[in-house]
Amino acid sequence: MHDESMQKVRSSLKKNHTQEHQRAWSLLKLTMWRRKMMMNVEKLAEIAVKVVWQGVSAAVSSLAEFAITSADEHSMLVNHPEDVTSENSM
Question: What is the DSSP letter of 1?
């Protein structure tokens, strides 16, 4: 009877050890998957920031060009209004 109860204890310990091992392995795989997903999210965010900054750069460049052209045209109109009006009537 003593051997039989020892056998049950061993079997129970082995079963618990296997279940704990499986849980630990599942947790490790989940942790690795989360890290991979976080790296993918971080990479995607990095690319998104670069795209946004490229858009901002293009917009600022266009606005600067428009401002300079407008300032030049305004200066011509203020300093030489007769030249501008005669060009428009042609």
Answer: -
Instruction: Find tokens 């599942």 and name the residue.
Output: 26
Q: Could you tell me how many residues make up the chain?
A: 90
* Angstrom distance (rounded) from CA 64 to CA 59: 9
| Whether 77 contacts 69, CB under 8 Å | no
Which are the contacts of 3, defined by CB distance < 8 A and separation ≥ 6? none
**Whole-prediction pTM value?**
0.47
d(CA 87, CA 37): 63
CA distance 30 to 33: 5
- Whole-number Å distance between alpha carbons of 13 and 8: 9
The model's pLDDT over 14-27, given as tens digits with 9 standing for 90+, comes to 777 788 888 888 88
